[in-house]
Amino acid sequence: MENLEFNSSEYFQKIYKRPVLLEAKNLTQTFKHGKTERTVLNALNLKIHKREFICVIGPSGCGKSTFSRVVAGLDAYSSGEILVDGKAITGPSPERGMVFQGYTLFPWKTVKENVMFGPLMKGQSQATAEAHAREWINIIGLDKYENQYPHELSGGMKQRVAIARALVNEPKILLMDEPFGALDPHTRQKMQRHLMDLWQNIDITIIFVTHDMDEAILLADRIVALKANPGEIKEIIEVNLPRPRHPDVMLTPEFKKLRQHVDQLVHADEDELDPALAELPVIPRMTQVSHCK
Ligand SMILES: Nc1ncnc2c1ncn2[C@@H]1O[C@H](COP(=O)(O)OP(=O)(O)OP(=O)(O)O)[C@@H](O)[C@H]1O
Ligand SMILES: [Mg+2]
Question: Is the backbone of residue 229 left (phi > 0), alpha (psi -120 to 50) or beta?
């Protein structure tokens, strides 16, 4: 089925020889909650190499989105450093494309206009921006839909447009926070394959946040497992599965072994869940609702 010649230690040695693209040094993020301060990311140290596919997992509230927002440049951080190509992140930049779970397309723009937005903002002419947009719309296979509006597309299609809209700017990093979280399992699987194909064929480093451990193992070179309260790196797992990967890889003993390991890592933290979840209220019996009689 897969390439039997795959040698994982050689594969990772090659990755580690590539330049470091993103580096977090003692990255710390604290938030004020009333009078108290809460450390969400605590002295995170991480090096991500060029063209790596990194998945970030961890229990709800451990700081995955906080980390993505800091890397995206959407939020300032409290202390430490976060560098891309050795330069500190000071705000959003087209070099870091973003695809988040909520569909973030402009609803009043067509598919083509959404994808053209970045190139136009960069000062490209209408014709050049349109040509670039078309190229990416073709790559994601939505050329027949270029004049449709987001509300006329399925969830999977919207996320493909969001990916094209990010990639048209030729970013160094594609940041994805639960991008397939709202999709049905079949569409999600198709999107995972589509993303792996894209990644294999373009010069891009992907940081992909997910709750789904199977998704993380299927996609990642390395999985960064965070623990909660405060968010710290618990373990970085090298996924020693051959590439290209087909979903059938999930049936192999190697995949199952990784799955068990990742499962234990994440579930060991269940007692340290987001306090807001740990303190979920007990729902009183709603006797006034007729079907509860
Ligand atoms: N702007 C903010 N102000 C105050 N607290 C915040 C802010 N953003 C996030 N937090 C807190 O930081 C913690 C981590 O939130 P974050 O959204 O990063 O978690 P997550 O790992 O992405 O969770 P989930 O898996 O549910 O998406 C939460 O307790 C949250 O309440
Ligand atoms: Mg999140």
Answer: left
pTM of the model as a whole: 0.90
Q: Residue 266 corresponds to which amino acid?
A: V
| 1 CA → ligand 1 middle, Å | 41
Protein residue closest via CA to atom 30 of ligand 1: 61
* Ordered domains of the chain (ranges, CATH): 8-95+171-292 (3.40.50.300), 105-169 (no CATH)
Quick one: tokens of 212?
Answer: 């789904």
Q: Ligand 1: which atom is nearest the Cα of residue 63?
A: 18
Cis-peptide, bond into residue 244, ω within 30° of zero: yes
- How confident is the model over 54-72, as pLDDT tens digits? 999 999 999 999 999 999 9
Distance CA 189, CA 24 (A): 31
Please state the separation of Cα 125 from the chain's center in Å: 31
H or E stretch at 43: strand 36-49
Residue 148 near residue 109, CB atoms below 8 Å = no
For β-strands 96-100 and 87-88, DSSP reports them as unpaired
Name residue 8's amino acid.
Answer: S
> Ligand 1, closest atom to CA 68?
18
